[in-house]
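Why do we bother with holo predictions? Because pocket geometry can differ from the apo form. Keep that in mind while you read this record for magnesium ion.
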Amino acid sequence: MYRIGIGHDTHRLEPGNGLWLGGLKIPHTQSAVGHSDADVLLHAMIDAILGAAALGDIGELFPDDDPRNKDRSSSSMLAIARDQVRNAGWHIVNMDCVIFAQKPKILPHREGIRQHVSDLLGLDINQVWLKAKTGEAVGPIGEERAIAAECIVLLETQAAFTKN
Ligand code: MG
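The structure, written out:
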């Protein structure tokens, strides 16, 4: 049996010393603002895999009023979500993701991010794809006031689920 899931996330940008994206610190003149490390890509991935497995969402798993989640590494959050999905019997078939950012250029970091994410999730690098779109210089993305990401994932299980 298969299930798909989708995740979306947005964070505000402020002047800063780099962006956490896909578990890597990307050099940039801005940083994303958030309770954790504000990694939009990993947050979208977490919501996609949790949603596909019907296991809640990132806000339920890591409430932003819990001090343990302050400045938390999103890689550690994804590892916890991965374990929950695995424990429910699901395997990731593939994920495809989009980063929406006017700057910086994502392509030079794409392979590093794909390697980090596939290692973390126990996948082959070809099960994880990533692309980036600018905001065409308009709107909050294009005016460099925000960064966003979307991710879609396919999960597979050997179990046969029946409605009861
Ligand atoms: Mg977020």
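Residues 107-121 form the longest helix (15 residues).
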